[in-house]
Structure formats: structure tokens, C-alpha cells
Amino acid sequence: MLNTLSGRFLILTVIFVMLAEILIFVPSIARYREDYLLLRLERAQIASLALLADDMIDMELEEELLKNAGVYNVVLRRDEMRQLILSSPIPEPISATYDMRGASAGVLIKDAVMQLLDSQNRVVRVIGAPVQDAGLLIEVTMDTEELRMSMIDYGVRILALSAVISVVTAFLLFLAVRAILVRPIKGVVGYMQTYAAAPEDARSLIKPQAGVTELREAEEALLALQTELTASLKQRERLAQLGSAVAKVSHDLRNILTSAQLFTDRIESSEDPLVRRLAPKLVNSITRAVHLCESTLAFGKAEEPAPTLTRFALSEMVADVIASERLAVEEFDLSFGEDIPAGLTVRADPEQMYRVVSNLVRNARQAIVASGQPGEIAVSATENDDAWLITVRDTGPGLPPKAQEHLYQPFQGGIRKGGSGLGLAISQELVRGHGGMLTLSETGTTGTTFEICLPKGEVAVI
């Protein structure tokens, strides 16, 4: 009970209502004391009317009037010259005088608190203004014991009533909180538990129906989260199935390509000049395809294999990439440029870097061809004391917003319509395996630039 939201709300409500009652208790008890003293003054004024009617009254009647008024004596000043007095013996000296005429709230509260704290019976003088303007002032002398006991009795009744009010209020609020907050929250928790048990079941999605704005927003946010998570789970399942299929296809394709390598010797021995010129490129392409299939199989088991670092001439590798891409656009107005220093060598895995540069150049070529406009692709490279920098720049239409948002996410960051987005995802993973970075430097209507940074220091294989 105490650990529940409604239970704690019930306890806090009781506490806060009691605190509020305590805060108004002191002003209330001060007001009660003021009313008590004013009533004594009023009764004393009525008692003095008997003396006003008859200047000579016997002692018994005077004592009875004072007893009914609850005072020891009465002084009623009618004018500057005349006073009416009822008196009886005072048991002890007057200890304090209270003037009720125009007393401030602070003074009344202070006097009331002091009265409650003082348990000793004392004789005090009280001065006030007569009712109905029946004189200049009225003054009585009285003891404080009856006043204090009356104040205590009033305070006890006030506190008891406050306790009852707080309990009733808290119980009503308890019921309201359960109906308005706790029950809808439990409903949301139930939907979450049901969804966790079977996230693929569309019936487990929450149906927003809360009347409270904040709870409604929470339900709608949960629905959006469940919908997105369900879609992600379905996509992961499809990717797992696709990965299994790709692994099987890559296995069989590797065997086919391995058989094709056996025929390259006869092709290389051909006397046809065109065949002799294209045969090495065909052999290299088949070899790379075999390596790619083997890498795909390795990726299906874990991830891309660690790079085999060797020194190689970057210009030769870039030339092979551009030569392959030229064959794909012989009839399209697309030019290629290379700006690689002749003696520049890099330390990296040549096959993996070929795949990275090839993916970037191919993406640029496909984007320019899809736009239907002439274009240019340029590959350049520089080096400094810390790293080698390879830049692939094109004059294409730029990356669409969706591709920029999911740039390196497989099956989401496709640059062209119908693309899978695997090229950039694979390229990023390969560059990271070298301890480097693949970054999008700029993109827009004037073109796109990617930059590969390969460190010269120790390679942290990721």
C-alpha cells in the first residue's frame, strides 16, 4: 500500500492538509481569544447598565452581575467626567493589560501564543470600546485560567475537525487519483508487458485512449516506439534471412568463379591483341570476385576480416578502378580524373582499399548517369606526417536528405533509388578496420566529396 502511487498520494494529502490546518490554527486561536475577550467586555457593559439605572445597588446584586460577566470589576467611562464602576476583591495584582482597541493581527497572535504557553493563572486588565458607542471605553479585570482552558478546548476541536477533513479529503483524492492516473498507468504497463512478451503481435500495440493530456501523450509516444521497434525487429529478421541467403549464394558463386579462373590461362595465350590487353583485367576482376565471396562468407560468420597491411602504389590501384568504371560508361559524357603522386605508396590492404575506392567511384558514376547530365569524377591523394588522404570528388546532383541521415546504415542509406546502401556501409567498416575514417566532406547541387583518412601510425583494427 505504501509503495503504490495512490497510497503515497493518500499519505501526502493527509500530511499537507494537516500542515495547512496547523498554519491557520494560530490565527484561528488568536481570533477566538479576541472574540472571547470582546464578549467579556460586552457582558460587563450590560452588567453596568444596572448601575446606570440605579446608582445604589446592594452587594449581592453587584456580585451576581460581575459573576455573570465573568470579571472582577468593570469601569465604563461614559464621558470625561462620569464613570460607572462595579467592583469586587481582586485575588492578586494585575500582571498585564490588553487594549483591544485597534490591536494589530501580529499583536493578537503573539498574545494568544503567550496565553497558551503560560499555564499559570493570572489577573489581567482588558480595555475595549463599548458597543453601540455607549461611552469612551470599557475596562474589565479578569483571570486567565478560564480563558486558557477555553482556548485549549477550541484548539482541540479545531484539530480534530481538521483531522477528519484531511482524512475525508485524502480518501476522495485517493479515489480520484486511482481513476484518473493509477488505472491508466497500469493499463500502459500492461500494454508494455504484453508487447514485451510478443512484439511481433500487432494486437499488443497500445491503443491511446487516456483523457488526461499528459497520459495521452505518453501513450502516443509508446505507440510510436512500439511501431518503430516492431519495424526494426522485422527488418532484422529479414536481414538475417538475407544474410543466410547471401552466404549460400556467395559460397556457390565462389566455386563458379574458381572454375572460371582455370580458363584464364588459355585466354592469356590468345594471339588476339584485344584479348591479350583485356585478359589481365579479366583475371584481376575474377580474383577480386573470389576474394569478395570469401569475405562475404567471413562476414556472415562474424565481420570483415582484419586487413593485411602491405605497401603498394596507390596510383596503380586507382587506375584499375577508373579503367573498370570507364568500360561501364563508354557511351555517356562522363570524364574521370586522377591526381595521384607517382611515387605515393600507402600501407593498407590493397584488396580492401580497392573495394572502398571502387564503391565510392561507382556510387558517383551511378548518381551522375541517373541525373542525365554530363559530369566528372576525380580521385586525388595527398599525405602528411600523420596520414594518407584520399579524396573522391564528383559533380553529381548531391546526396538526398534520407541518404545523408542514414549514410552508413545498410538498406537505409541508399544514394540512388533502388540502392541498398551496402556500399557505403561496407566501405566505412573497411576503413575503420584500418584505423581510419571515411567522412562526407561536402554535398550539394554542385557535387559530392568523400575523404578517406588512413593513419600512418599503429593501426587499431576495429
What does this molecule look like?
This protein has helices at residues 5-53, 59-69, 105-117, 145-197, 213-261, 264-268, 273-301, 314-328, 350-371, 401-405, 422-433, and strands spanning 73-77, 83-86, 94-99, 123-128, 137-143, 310-313, 334-339, 345-348, 375-383, 387-394, 437-444, 447-455. It is α+β, with helices and mostly antiparallel strands and 462 residues long. Helix 3 links the parallel strand 3 (94-99) and strand 4. The protein is built from eleven helices and twelve strands. Strands 2-1-5-4-3 form a five-stranded mixed β-sheet. It has a five-stranded mixed β-sheet with strand order 7-9-10-12-11. Among the domains are: 5-170, no CATH class; 304-455, Heat Shock Protein 90 (2-Layer Sandwich), CATH 3.30.565. The model has no long low-confidence stretch (mean pLDDT 79). Keywords: ATP-binding, Kinase, Membrane, Nucleotide-binding, Phosphoprotein, Transferase, Transmembrane, Transmembrane helix, Two-component regulatory system. InterPro entries: HATPase_C_sf, HATPase_dom, His_kinase_dom, HisK_dim/P_dom, HisK_dim/P_sf, Sig_transdc_His_kin-like_C. It holds the Pfam family HATPase_c.
Keywords:
462 residues; five-stranded mixed beta sheet; alpha+beta; 12 strands; Heat Shock Protein 90; 16% strand; 11 helices
